[in-house]
């Protein structure tokens, strides 16, 4: 039975939905959309307690899913894998907030995972050894707290001062330096739709639509904001800075 189709959902709704045929309580996190205003939700911990009380499996689909801490208050109202260790089953994306390869991950109690592994669908949906190897490296980085090796986490944690140093370096290498502007940006990737974080961007002079088309043709993607074409530096990897400099100079010549 479905629960939570209105803007306000409380524990009683779940209690009333459970009957003699119920086997599992599934909660799907709103990872790529949000409900604001007059709304109410049920904490996952409360659903876990209800599942234990009724001898049911509690299963949480997080969508994005992250482990540890996030900067700029991003973790507010977001389910943290660290707090779901007692859940029967948890699923989330290997990419997105976790910052690894594109795959689906299911964690949970040993006996339930064993049953899932016997399902014939596993032969169709299982990932290859390359994906497993890359995912293992990401998990190892989390275990060793080497967060700088997780690209998504590293980019999120960059301070505005760090971005300003990058902006100044890029300008020092350009034929025509660009305006440095403060902006707010989204995490993206189908996560945290209403949360923005501070960032720094390079604004290209001239018609924003024409600049967007020129840069896109030269394989550089930016965005238009308040009539300006911006290159958001929180989206630029350290290894790509030199390439971006070359692309800007090339585009400036056209």
Automatic annotation (TrEMBL):
Its cofactor is pyridoxal 5'-phosphate. One of its GO terms (cellular component) is cytoplasm. Its EC number is 2.9.1.1. It is an enzyme of class 2 (transferase). SUPFAM superfamilies: PLP-dependent transferases. GO terms for molecular function: L-seryl-tRNA(Sec) selenium transferase activity. Keywords: Cytoplasm, Protein biosynthesis, Pyridoxal phosphate, Selenium, Transferase. Signal peptide: none annotated. GO terms for biological process: selenocysteine incorporation. It comes from the Bacteria. It holds the Pfam family SelA. The keyword Plastid does not apply. The modification N6-(pyridoxal phosphate)lysine is found at residue 96. The keyword Glycosyltransferase does not apply. Belongs to the SelA family. This is Selenocysteine synthase. It comes from Campylobacter showae CC57C.
